[in-house]
Amino acid sequence: MSLIKPFRGLRPAPGRAAEIAAPPYDVLSAEEARVRAAGKPNSFLHISKAEIDLPPEIDHYSPPVYAKSRENFDRMIREAVLKQDDAPCYYAYRLTMGEHSQTGLVAAASVADYDSNRIRKHEFTRPDKEDDRVRQIEALNAQTGPVLLAHPDAPEVDALLAQASAGEPDADVTADDGIRHTLWAIRDAAVLQRLTFAFDAMPALYIADGHHRSAAASRVAAARRAKNAHHTGAEDYNYFLAVIFPHHQMRIMDYNRVVKDLNGLSTMGFLARLTERFVVSICSPRYRPMQRGEFSLYLPGQWYRLTIHPHLIPTDDPVARLDVSLLSESLLGPVLGIKDLRRDKRIDFVGGIRGLEELERRVDSGEMAAAFALHATDMEDLMSVADAGEVMPPKSTWFEPKLADGLVSHVLD
Length: 413
Hints:
The protein is an alpha+beta fold. It contains 13 helices and 21 strands.
């Protein structure tokens, strides 16, 4: 089995991509999705978040939601709003956000290689979120939410995708948030083969975002394999929908923290405790960390720069040396008493796309007592953690720009 393979994508009919493409299912609440999809009967949100078409009080994980998703999916296929390609393809997918641009490959990625850790993970998953994606895949008999993967440097792949994306695109959509999504179908048999061989030569791929989607695909494949007396390994359920970008093109933004209280400390007492592990200096105006081991702290009306003492940074542990780990081990835990980032209700997380202004707003409103801005995690750090078979702390990475749902789906024929 190959690491990736082309597939017959289910895609918007010509000229329909703009009315179909939608944000990923997991970045909008049901209320936000309902507003986004209002007056747009073919928005993919009617498939990825079908609860918006049901009474607001419904349990989002209840059977009627998945049934409604299938009903909407079938309607869009029946009305030829969505159409499946006649032959297997790869697809070049370009994301453009302001001056930033990245071009990757839409492919079906091997579940077997995910199971063997050749497609490497860096996060734990939650069973309830896995269950949700399993039910969604089974309801639709399709994977509609792509997993975001990264691949090591591969100049041949870059060159092939540059060539494939030079012509007229099959879809070109600028979303409400200003992100441009451009897609080209790759049909040439020789190019398909060269891409397949180029990926087969890679030692590993890395999950950037989509751990629950890939874990769910693995579970569906295992269940179907067990029921199929004639299983060959070539069936579509043995692969999952993925978009794979060169790691050097991917953009990780900071993932910041806000806390509700100072654990009983006064402002001066809190700052005094910080000097045990950090060099603390006042900043004016707001300050964004510029290097690893550096953090920004915002207390009402004032920014501070925190630089951790170098001897506190491990050199031989790919997880412990991450800034998100350093903040937890040297400040959040020992000073603020926040030891479980997954369950402690005193902490919340703010994606860097919202800017430092959002941190100020959360504190100045009185909702939070303090905010911490971090230097963004590097892709090389993510890959090192995954190569070591370790996991990163919760909320370590915030990828931008994000993929769209609905531009290509993978049907499990």
